[in-house]
Amino acid sequence: MFRPTVVQTPAIITITLLCWRLLLGTVRMLYRHPIAIVATAGLSALAVVYGWQWSAGLVSSLVLGLVGWALLHRSSFSWWVGWRLLAFWRLVWIYRPHWSFAMSGAGLSKLAKGLEYRPRLVKVTCGPVADQVTVKMLKGQSFDDWTTRADNLAHAFRALSCRTSIVRAGLLRLTFPRRDPLRTPIPALPIPDVVNLHAVPVGLCEDGRSWTLKVHGTHILGAGATGAGKGSLIWSVVRGLLPAVRAGLVELVGLDPKLMELSYGRELFHRYAAAPEECADLLDEVVKRMQERATMFGGHRRSHTPTIEDPFVLVIVDEIAFLTAYQNDRDLKRRINAALATLTTQGRAVGVGVMALLQDPRKEVMNIRNLFPDKIAMRLDESEQVDMVLGEGARERGALADFISPIPSVGAGVAYVRLETSPEPVRVRAAYVSDADIRDMVAWLTNPADGDTLPLPPIELAQEAE
Ligand SMILES: Nc1ncnc2c1ncn2[C@@H]1O[C@H](COP(=O)(O)OP(=O)(O)OP(=O)(O)O)[C@@H](O)[C@H]1O
Description:
This protein is of the alpha/beta class. The chain contains twelve helices and 18 strands. Mean pLDDT is 88; it is low at 453-460 and 462-466.
């Protein structure tokens, strides 16, 4: 029978080890919380040398000073102090106490040889609308292990939702919104002074930042069930481009087979068509123009910069399926499909973009959806449609477009997008451009204010280097 020898560890070794750990812990605490340690030590020293009244007086004046700062200049106070204090508070009261239970409950900790290994909570930071929790994953875990548990984590920390993103190998960021800035409709955004074709403001992201859309050098496909608010997407883009339209640097082409949406702001479009034959003719015209431009640019330029002679042309198609899948005239359907495919495959480099909206994203209805690099999923009827619009795995990563509320004031205009900078879907809401706003836009474009002349001299057209 094998009996391992029991070796008694000498007390001196145990004590040395404990002292070493204590020393390491103290150094780590000093390194992690230098301000808190220095402040506590300073106040204690003051109390010992001069009496506690001095420390109490100093603390009270400090608190009064901070309250004054917060009242006088909220934004700088929040940036320097407020969010840090809130992050500390939420770390101590929410994340730390519930961490171990949340990890084991969500199945993210591992048991090995009787020991439980948990992912490490690295830090918590707070912003105006969301908390960001940085986590060190356990060895052997994958990003997918976390994305599939996002719902468990949201409930565990009593958040509205949880979104996951990678910081670097092994390090994750969990975003827990504290409030939803997209709950209430966003009024139409102001018409910008400077148009940036790579970042046209259209609404808000769920973290409170501005949601901007790139329109030049890409094509956009927006899908949403009836009443999802596709109109607000169209009009927000048009509104954001208006100064460039007035300056003659952007031309809007509207195809409105439903005859409902774009006709309301008909005057904002350089060219407009509603009947399918007119739409086919107009598309052929744009294709011809695009090909002429390509011939002209060929060998000289590889990208397009909008000028009055060669403006950026944005073709906006409301309910594209009326022109493609639901079109009875086969010849017309073939012509339209061919023109759209040509524009979406060749238009980017020569300054022609297509923004198409549709209700049903199935392949039978829209067989060229893969030719649109940027896609937006508004409220959809079925969960399978989310991946059809945003790409494989988007719903699993949190794009719950089928859960967007059908109540217009809550869910209209809300969408999920995959921004170029990150593959993670982001929840956004387009600003609501009302009928009165559209009338004002028409008036702004067609009746320049006193002193304004038409066309305006070219406005600054901020653009990223291509
Ligand atoms: N961004 C928004 N914020 C708040 N409410 C909105 C927004 N967009 C639209 N709505 C409301 O939702 C209603 C439906 O919007 P809209 O007509 O744009 O939907 P749609 O997706 O174009 O529907 P359909 O495909 O049937 O035309 C509008 O009448 C408006 O009241």
